[in-house]
Fold this protein.
Amino acid sequence: MTFVGKILVIVIMAFALLFLGISTVVFTTHTNWKEATKKERDRVSDLQKKSSELTNSLETAKKDLEKAQADHKSAISQGEARIKSLEDEIKQAQAEITAARSRLEVAEQSANTALAEAAQRRAETDQIRTQKSAVEKQANEFKIQQTDLIEKVRELERQNKTLDGNNRDLRDRVARFTTLLRRNGLSDDISTVKGTETPPPVQGEVAEVDPTGRKVKFTLGSDDGILAGHELYVYRVSPRPEYLGRIQVQIVDPDTSVGKVIGNTIQGKKIREGDIVSSTIRPRS
């Protein structure tokens, strides 16, 4: 065999091998496409099933979305209404707060005024309490003085009764003496009897003074030569000597007499118990 024949044999063998390979590949590929097609069909079936499910899910989702959108719109409307309501409530609350602040300011001013008035009332109350204490103290003193005055009034009433009794006795005695004088043809005018115009030189003390200060009882009587109608002088020696005035004897007892102040006393001074009653002193010129 020639070299060319050998080459042709080799080429033929090569082509045979190539054809064998291609046939093998074709056979192998034909089998794979079948299985792949089956697989792809199953896959397509699964995908269609999933697509159907996804379509149903999408429809459900669309419905849910539409419902959610409707609910969202409703919620937005409700929210807007709620926001508007809250805004109105906020405005009303702000107005109420402003009014409350105004009322609070007025209340604070009223409270400050009330506190000032309370402090003033407290000060007035303290002052009134002080005045009340002073008045109560003065009232107690007045009660004591009233008690003393009541005792003095009672004593003066007792003395007045005694003096009234003495006055009745003296009137009876004067009536009897007048009757006796007239029976004996004598005058009953004491001023016509010589020696009765001027009292004898005597000196006594004021024993009592009536509340009016116009009548005094003193420690001189008929035993001392005092007669009704005599005028006596009243003066004081303590704390310094001073002349007070004159009295005229009205009622005479053996040891005491009652006289009436003539005119006014010097400088309106009141006669007191212990002052001197005398027939010899004269007022200073």
